From TrEMBL:
Its main location: membrane. It is found in: Cell inner membrane. The keyword NADP does not apply. It comes from Thalassotalea eurytherma. Interacts with the SecY protein in vivo. May bind preferentially to an uncomplexed state of SecY, thus functioning either as a chelating agent for excess SecY in the cell or as a regulatory factor that negatively controls the translocase function. InterPro entries: Syd (IPR009948), Syd_sf (IPR038228). The gene is syd. Keywords: Cell inner membrane, Cell membrane, Membrane. It is a peripheral membrane protein. Belongs to the Syd family. This is Protein Syd. It comes from the Bacteria.
Length: 190
């Protein structure tokens, strides 16, 4: 069974991320680019822009990625949509827009970054446990200072929360509903 068929979030996320690429090409005339770093390669890299920058686009995660190590370290089960979300694509953060403003969907850039992401998830959950708050898993940052978007680990609902505080605004009933309500966003040329 391929990853695509076993992950209900794969198609919506992959398509949304590629809408962002198409919008970049429409607005700027090219794919987004990132500063070259020979020590930080990624399957997202797709050609040289110039001596200092490479073009990038989201890339499907071909290898099977697991959060079993995270679940074992924390002694909890992560909500399935958290795992589905973070195991769809490699990508730079992908900008998006909702009626509440602009945000960036967070993904791993490469294998090493996926491991760093897992450590960040562990740190976030440990902080929530220490504060005796319900467990949430962040997946996006917003244009509002200190406001992140996260998945309630019990219900799978998407919530806005201030870092270290209780979630304060329900954004969507599920990750799939959330992804489906996003609009592609590209900052206007300067």
């Amino acid at each position: 069974m391929s990853m695509k068929s076993s992950n209900p979030l794969f198609q919506p996320i992959f398509e949304f991320a590629n809408q962002f690429i198409a919008k970049c090409e429409q607005v700027y005339g090219h794919k987004p680019y990132i500063e070259k770093d020979d020590q930080w390669l990624s399957p997202c890299l797709c050609g040289e822009r110039d001596d200092e920058n490479d073009y990038w686009q989201p890339a499907e995660m071909k290898n099977v990625h697991s959060f079993a190590n995270v679940e074992e370290a924390l002694g909890i089960k992560l909500h399935p949509t958290v795992i589905e979300y973070f195991t769809t694509i490699y990508s730079e953060p992908v900008p998006a827009k909702t009626e509440d403003g602009v945000l960036e969907l967070l993904f791993a850039w490469n294998e090493e970054d996926f491991e760093r992401l897992q450590r960040n998830v562990i740190g976030h959950v440990l902080m929530k446990q220490k504060l005796k708050q319900p467990i949430t898993i962040f997946f996006a940052v917003t244009d509002q200072e200190d406001i992140i978007l996260s998945v309630d680990n019990e219900t799978g609902e998407v919530w806005a929360e201030k870092v270290g505080k209780l979630p304060h605004k329900k954004v969507a009933d599920s990750m799939l509903a959330f992804v489906n309500m996003l609009e592609s966003y590209v900052a206007p040329p300067q």
